[in-house]
C-alpha cells in the first residue's frame, strides 16, 4: 500500500519524545499529525496523551517483575567477599551476609556486578614439554 509507513521495531519513548508529544497535543495538533512528526504510531501518541490527562505525568511506569530481596547494603556485603577472595563459595557468602536468599540469587547479584566465580586449579595445566621433563625427573629417581 503506497500510503502505509514501514513499521519500526518496538522501542521505548524517550523523556524528550514524551514531552514533545504532550507539547504538540497541548498546542492543539491532531494525534495523526503528532504521530507523523515524532515518527511513532498513533496508538503510542494516544497512550502517552491519555496518561498525561489521566495522571498528570508523562514518566514511564516502573517495570514489572519481582522486587529485590536485599537492600543495597546487603548487596555490597555480598560483593565484598567475592572481591577479596574470588574462590569463595556461594554458601559461604550466604552465611556471612546472614540473609535468607538462594545461592542462585547470590550468583545473579555477582553476575550483575560483573564478578565471575573462579575455582582453584585441581592441578596445574602442563604443556607437553613440562610433561616430558616431569617424566624424565621421575624416571631418574624411580630406583
Low-confidence stretches: none
Spatial separation of the terminal alpha carbons: 90 Å
Alpha-beta classification:
mainly alpha
Order of helices and strands: HHHHHHH
**Strand content of the residues, in percent?**
under 5%
Please give the share of residues in helix.
40-55%
Taken from the alpha-carbon principal axes, the silhouette is elongated
Number of strands: 0
Biggest pleated-sheet summary: none
Number of helices: 7
Provide the gyration radius in Å. Answer: 29 Å
Mean pLDDT: 83
Subunit arrangement of the protein = single chain
Structure write-up:
The protein is mainly alpha-helical and 143 residues long. Helix content is 55%, strand content 0%. It is built from seven helices and no strands. Helix 1 (15-26) packs antiparallel against helix 2 (31-38), helix 2 packs across helix 3 (42-55) and helix 5 (90-97) crosses helix 6. It starts with 14 loop residues before the first helix and ends with a helix. The mean pLDDT is 83.
Amino acid at each position: 500500500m503506497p500510503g502505509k509507513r514501514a513499521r519500526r521495531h518496538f522501542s521505548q519513548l524517550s523523556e524528550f519524545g514524551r514531552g514533545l508529544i504532550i507539547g504538540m497535543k497541548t498546542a492543539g495538533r491532531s494525534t495523526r499529525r503528532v504521530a507523523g512528526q515524532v515518527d511513532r504510531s498513533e496508538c503510542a501518541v494516544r497512550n502517552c496523551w491519555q496518561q498525561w490527562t489521566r495522571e498528570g505525568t508523562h514518566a514511564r511506569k516502573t517495570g514489572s517483575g519481582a522486587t529485590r530481596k536485599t537492600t543495597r547494603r546487603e548487596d555490597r556485603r555480598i560483593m565484598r567477599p567475592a572481591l577479596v577472595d574470588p574462590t569463595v563459595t556461594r554458601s559461604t557468602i550466604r552465611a556471612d551476609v546472614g540473609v535468607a536468599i538462594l545461592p542462585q540469587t547470590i550468583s545473579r547479584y555477582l553476575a550483575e556486578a560483573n564478578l565471575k566465580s573462579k575455582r582453584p586449579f585441581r592441578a596445574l595445566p602442563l604443556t607437553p614439554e613440562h610433561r616430558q621433563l616431569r617424566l624424565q625427573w621421575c624416571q631418574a629417581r624411580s630406583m
